[in-house]
Input
Amino acid sequence: MEDEVQKLKSDRSLLKKTLLKEREEHKRLERRFEDLDLDLRKKCDEVESLELVNSQLDAKCQALQDQAKGTAQGWSLWKSRPSDEVLRLQKGLSAVQEDLRAKIEENGGK
Output
């Protein structure tokens, strides 16, 4: 009977040690879980922030592309159709050139 009591005391001591180890492991795992949860929340916030910035940059890129297309179209229109000012200046230049030719011929003939 004493052997049984001694064995039970030994088992009880072993169970206590095991229980303490398990509690420590449980606390360690809880801390690890909290750390990982915090990291996950930070990463989620960072992803949301980056998605917002990305969408803003997409909008800016689209606006710049639209602006570039408009500028390109504006240049092609400018090249294909001279303005009234350019036409007026070309007419004036033609008149001056004709006067100059006439004076050259007049002086060359003398």
In short: Residues 2-81 form one domain.
